[in-house]
């Protein structure tokens, strides 16, 4: 899990520019808070601010507002009940469900 998180952070840092930002809060060289946010197009084509990694949302919200984006979006795992409750308390609404299926063995091609 740490390697996946590290890769996500590295990807976010590589995207920094007018349409993507990374916010860090540090104290005495130790990271306290982290958030990444980027302009994205929703499936409807509407612009939105997507949070890639989140340890504090306030910076991401400010960044999105400054760019005229009216929708802040993030993904989390269904099993992350503590995180999901936190996001709801922070004003987020659960909107969609992602379904996955693990394919253990290759099947016939159609």
Give keywords.
alpha+beta, four-stranded mixed beta sheet, globular, Aminopeptidase, 4 strands
What does this structure look like?
This protein has one domain: Gcn5-related N-acetyltransferase (GNAT) (Aminopeptidase), CATH 3.40.630.30. Helices cover about 30% and strands about 30% of the residues. It has three helices and four strands, in the order αβββαβα. The radius of gyration is 16 Å and the shape is globular.
Low-confidence stretches: none
- Global morphology: globular
According to CATH, the homologous superfamily is Gcn5-related N-acetyltransferase (GNAT)
Number of strands: 4
Order of helices and strands, N to C? HEEEHEH
Q: Distance between the terminal alpha carbons, to the nearest Å? A: 34 Å
Secondary structure layout plus pairing:
Layout: H1 2-14, E1 20-27, E2 30-41, E3 47-54, H2 58-66, E4 72-74, H3 81-89
Parallel strand pairs: 3-4
Antiparallel strand pairs: 1-2, 2-3
């Amino acid at each position: 899990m740490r390697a996946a998180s590290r890769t996500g952070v590295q990807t976010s840092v590589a995207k920094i520019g007018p349409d993507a930002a990374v916010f860090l809060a540090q104290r005495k060289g130790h990271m306290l808070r982290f958030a990444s946010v980027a302009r994205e197009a929703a499936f409807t084509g509407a612009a939105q601010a997507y949070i890639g990694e989140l340890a504090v949302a306030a910076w991401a919200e400010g960044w999105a507002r400054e760019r005229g984006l009216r929708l802040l979006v993030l993904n989390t795992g269904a099993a992350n009940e503590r995180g999901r409750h936190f996001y709801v308390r922070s004003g987020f609404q659960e909107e969609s469900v992602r379904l996955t299926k693990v394919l253990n063995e290759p099947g016939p091609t159609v």
